[in-house]
Amino acid sequence: MAGKLKFIHTADIHLGSILHLSCDPREDILDLVNNSTYYAFEYICSFAIENNVDFIIISGDLYDKEARSVRASKFFIEQCERLRENNIKVYLIYGNHDPLTKETDIFHMPDNVFTFDSNNANSIDYFNRDGELAARIVGQSYKTAAESRKMHKTYVVPDNSVYNIGLLHTQLNSNNKNYVPSTSIELKENVNIDYWALGHIHKFNIVNKDTPTIVYPGIPQGRDIGEEGMGGIILAEVEDKSLINLQYITTSLVVWKKVEIKIDEDKENIPENLSDLEDIMLKKAESIVEEYNNISKINGTIENPPLKGFVVQWIISGMGAINDIIKQSRDEIVQVLTKSLNDKLLNNLPFILSDSIEFKTSTFDLNIDKIIAENQIFREVDKVVQCCFRDDKMKMDLLKAMGDVYEYSDDVENYNEQKLQIDEKELSEIILKARQLAFEKLLERGD
Ligand SMILES: [Mn+2]
């Protein structure tokens, strides 16, 4: 039936990038660290075949680097061959991480793969398996890593007699002009487009539910703690030119998770030593797995979700006497505790990999507002802290004092790989942590 259509919308696969762990991973986990982005894409293709979709659209950043690796290119082609055997087409634009600078590919692309040009926007007709015109796909690739062209304004389709899909790698509704600046209003102005398949933002987001549907699928496999949570793709179904189903399908093999434990939250169970603390962490790990099992039961449509495990970054905070133990040998405790947790949790399915443990505990009840109000010395320290927040020059001096390894940046896409990035939020956290440390030291002195 001409009016029926089923497709997958994905983006930001970043083939070839590895998982950026803080720890040295155990050998049996190395394969996942190096290959999860590949496995996630392989899963997407298997899912497409099992669900008999018409086509897959990829809205940019298929590859991680401008210099596409030979291995990633070969892998992509092999997967597309599988799709070809199953009569599934692939429509693809390139983004800021894999711009189309040269018009040549390293290998021959199979004939079921359609790549959009970087000079002009093009519209491609999709004919379904009965040979009927069933959709049009319009798109344009990046030519360079930064693109200020408002490509979407040149997306033209002849009419709205079929379902029209626009592929756009864009930073929507933002002041940043480097990534095809667009607004929801501009997208809606193109009345012939029914579905805007966006890419670039690595988080799943339905920007507009009604027509036109505007969606970011997010990254299928997160690569660091900044890409926390279950990554996935969109499965869309269309009947008689209207979207009848839009489903988020999780595709991550490894899920990143920040977990905070407040040691003074459960007053009956404040840990007295490291064994107590480890017990609390183990219980928490159990609840992560339980929560996941419950979710997959609810969404139980997929038989074999690819998830293998979680990478957890622990934050231990709150007040308790255990802080005296922690203070004395923080680094050694992190090492011993991490190893012990990994020995117990890394062999399970899904596994829990404890990647890092950060202690933010204190011995005293640091009611900071109260201390500042009551004591002149603390007030003076806080004045300096407040200056750091207000005075940009002081802030930058502070950053300089922390060492050359850091660089201030709030653009996650466009950074110097030689340096560690610090944004406003992290810098504020460091300043507040410094204040806490100073207060603790002062309180230790007693008077
Ligand atoms: Mn991306």
UniProtKB/TrEMBL annotation:
Keywords: Exonuclease, Hydrolase, Nuclease
Residues of the Calcineurin-like phosphoesterase domain: 5-203
Stretches of the chain forming a coiled coil according to its record: none
One term of GO molecular function: exonuclease activity
Annotated CDD domains: MPP_Mre11_N (cd00840)
Protein name: Exonuclease SbcCD subunit D
Organism: Clostridium omnivorum
